[in-house]
Amino acid sequence: GIQVEQSPPDLILQEGANSTLRCNFSDSVNNLQWFHQNPWGQLINLFYIPSGTKQNGRLSATTVATERYSLLYISSSQTTDSGVYFCAAFGSGGYNKLIFGAGTRLAVHP
Amino acid sequence: SAVISQKPSRDICQRGTSLTIQCQVDSQVTMMFWYRQQPGQSLTLIATANQGSEATYESGFVIDKFPISRPNLTFSTLTVSNMSPEDSSIYLCSVDYQPNTEAFFGQGTRLTVV
């Protein structure tokens, strides 16, 4: 089945810094999503982005499906951005199984 | 967006007991999914719940340990049976309103087994 790898595993930032999180996947995908898991465990949808570029405030994401990677950009980071960021993908075989990467644990310090 | 209500939000249970987690969706969906997130780990799919048929379990998960009900198109339950401390995890339900499109998650159930 599809493999999803995220980097870096851990990231520490000062408030106001920018960062880029990467997600590589091993096969073509029908669906690519980015999530933010807050300290209470809730999984927040950030982007549904099988291809192309999207922006939402200080966050943006780009998926290059032909090269099998996606990037999540966080600009002007805030302490509330802390938590774990997951990317997840469905494989292209038509089976509704969302495969998660291991996550990037982000800590933003004031 | 989606409204997925999951309860309880957290619980502390004695080993050997069972806990049933409920997931209610704001509109009808064909498939509902249950995930487990062990401490410090990523999410792993436990099973897919279809209305009117038995749930489909992933490798490493069995019906006796994680029985699932799906009585209608907006509701599902997951039971964690005969619990041990190793079952301490966050359990999340998920739906996608159209197959292979954006998935949405409930707020999760944080289970601690003592």
Describe the structure.
The complex is a heterodimer of chains A (110) and B (114). Chain A has 110 residues and is mainly β. Chain A is 0% helix and 60% strand. Chain A contains no helices and eleven strands. In chain A, strands 2, 4, 5, 9, 10 and 11 form a six-stranded mixed beta sheet that branches. Chain A is globular. Chain B is mainly beta and 114 residues long. Helix content of chain B is 0%, strand content 52%. Chain B has strands at residues 4-7, 10-13, 19-25, 31-37, 43-50, 56-57, 68-72, 75-80, 89-96, 103-105, 109-113. In chain B, the strands form two sheets. In chain B, strands 2, 4, 5, 6, 9, 10 and 11 form a seven-stranded mixed beta sheet that branches. Chain B has a four-stranded antiparallel beta sheet with strand order 1-3-8-7, with no helix packed on it. The mean pLDDT of chain B is 94. Classes of the chains: A mainly beta (110), B mainly beta (114). Chains A and B meet through strand 4, strand 5 and strand 9 of A and strand 4, strand 5, strand 9 and strand 10 of B.
Q: Which sequence of SSEs, written as H and E, runs from N to C of chain A? A: EEEEEEEEEEE
Average pLDDT taken over every residue of chain B: 94
The most extensive interface, with participating residues per chain, is: A-B, 21 and 25 residues
Percentage of residues in helical conformation of chain B: under 10%
Our estimate of the beta-strand percent of chain A is over 45%
Give the structural class of chain A. Answer: mainly beta
